[in-house]
Amino acid sequence: MLKFTALFVLLCAHFHVGLSITDGLLPNGNFEQGPKPSQMKGTRVTDPTAIPNWQLSGVIEYIKSGQKQGDMLLIVPEGQFAIRLGNEASIRQKLKVTKGMFYSVTFSAARTCAQEERLNVSVRPNTEAKDWGMLPMQTMYSSDGWDSYAWGFLAEASEVEVSIHNPGVEEDAACGPLLDSVAIKALPPPRRMRGNMLKNGNFEHGPYVFPNTSWGVLVPSNIEDDHCPLLGWMVESLKAVKYIDSDHFSVPEGKRAIELIAGKESAIAQVVKTTKGKVYDLTFSLGDASNLCEGSMEVEAFAGKVTLRVPYESKGKGGFKQARLRFVAVSDRTRVRFLSSFYTMKNDNSGSLCGPVIDDVKLLGVRNPN
Ligand SMILES: *[C@@H]1O[C@H](CO)[C@@H](O)[C@H](O)[C@H]1NC(C)=O
Ligand SMILES: *[C@@H]1O[C@H](CO)[C@@H](O)[C@H](O)[C@H]1NC(C)=O
C-alpha cells in the first residue's frame, strides 16, 4: 500500500509538471488559426471567440501577410497572419503555469501609424493594484518595422490569464499596433555563481528569443523591477535595451548578451551588497554584435561613485575586449551600472539604432590590493 501511495504521488508530481505550459509559442500564439469567413466583416473580427485559444475584446482585425494599408504593404514576421489591436482592444489567453514561478512573455509588434503607440501587458490574478507593463512602441529598432518585446511576471496561481491591450484612442480607426508571435518562458531564479557577486552577470537568464527572428528582444524600461524579464538586472532610464542571442548576433560569452541601443537613454543596473572600505574589481566584456553597427563606441561603467569609460572601435563585424574597473566600496550597497556614451546607427541606411554589446560582467573582492 505504501509503495502504491509513493508511486501515485510520483505520478501526480509528474502529471502536474506535464500540465503547465512549456517554453515557446503559446497555443495559436502566432494567430495562424483564424476566424471563419462568417466571423469577419472585411478584415474585422466580429466574434470574440473566433481566434482559437484567444478571447478578444474591442476592434480587432485579422491581417494577412501582404495585405495593403493605403500604399503600405503589411509584413507579417511569422507565418501568414497577424492581428491588429484597434482602440482599447485586447486579447487574452488562460495558461496553466507553476504557481510561484517567474515567467517572461515575449511578443512581436509593429506600429502602423506615425503616432506613438503603446501596449499594455498584464496578468491575472494579481494582488497588486495597477500592476501592468506599459510598453512604448514609439521608436523602431529593427529594419523592417517589427520588434519583439518582453515582460515578466510571478505566477500567483496555477492558472493565469495573460492580456495584451492597446490603450490608445486614435482618430484613425485603421491605426493601432500589429501583433504576432506571443511566447512564454519559465525563468528559475538565477543563483549566484562561484567567482561572481553579481546575479546573471552573463545574461544567460532572460526572455524567450524567437528562433526565427533576427532582431533580438527589447527589454523595456519604465516597468517595475519585479516585471523585468532580465533576471537580477534593472533597465534604468528612458529607453529599452536589446537582448541578443548567439544564433543571430556576435556575443562575447555564452548564448546571450545585451546591446545598449539608446545611448545614455538606456542603462542596465544591479545593486549588490558590498563592504564599505573594501576593494573590488568589476570586470566585463564589451564588443559589437556583428550587425553593421560601425564606428567609435564607448561604454561607461559605474560602481558606486567611480566611473570608467571604455572606448571600442567597431567595424560592425563582431569582436570584443575586456575591461576592469577597480573601486573602493563607499557603502554597504553598491550600484553597478552600464550605459553607452553615444548613439550609433546601423550603416545600412535603415536608421535603426544600435550600440555596444556588454556581457560576462563579474564583481569580485580583491584580497591584496596595492
Ligand atoms: C492595462 O490592462 C489591464 C488588463 O486589461 C487593465 O485592467 C488596465 O486598466 C490597463 N491599464 C491601462 C492604463 O489602460
Ligand atoms: C522557423 O521557420 C521554419 C522555416 O520557415 C519553420 O518551419 C519553423 O516552424 C519556424 N519555427 C518557429 C518556432 O516559428
TrEMBL record:
Source taxon at top rank: Eukaryota
Alphabetical list of Pfam families matching this protein: DUF642
Limits of the DUF642 domain: 24-185, 197-363
Location relative to the cell: Secreted, Cell wall
Signal peptide: 1-20
Entry keyword annotation includes Signal: yes
Keyword Glycoprotein: yes
Gene3D superfamilies documented for this protein: Galactose-binding domain-like (2.60.120.260)
Keywords linked to the UniProt accession: Cell wall, Glycoprotein, Secreted, Signal
Name by which UniProt lists this protein: Allergen Act d like
Species name: Actinidia chinensis var. chinensis
Lineage: Eukaryota, Viridiplantae, Streptophyta, Embryophyta, Tracheophyta
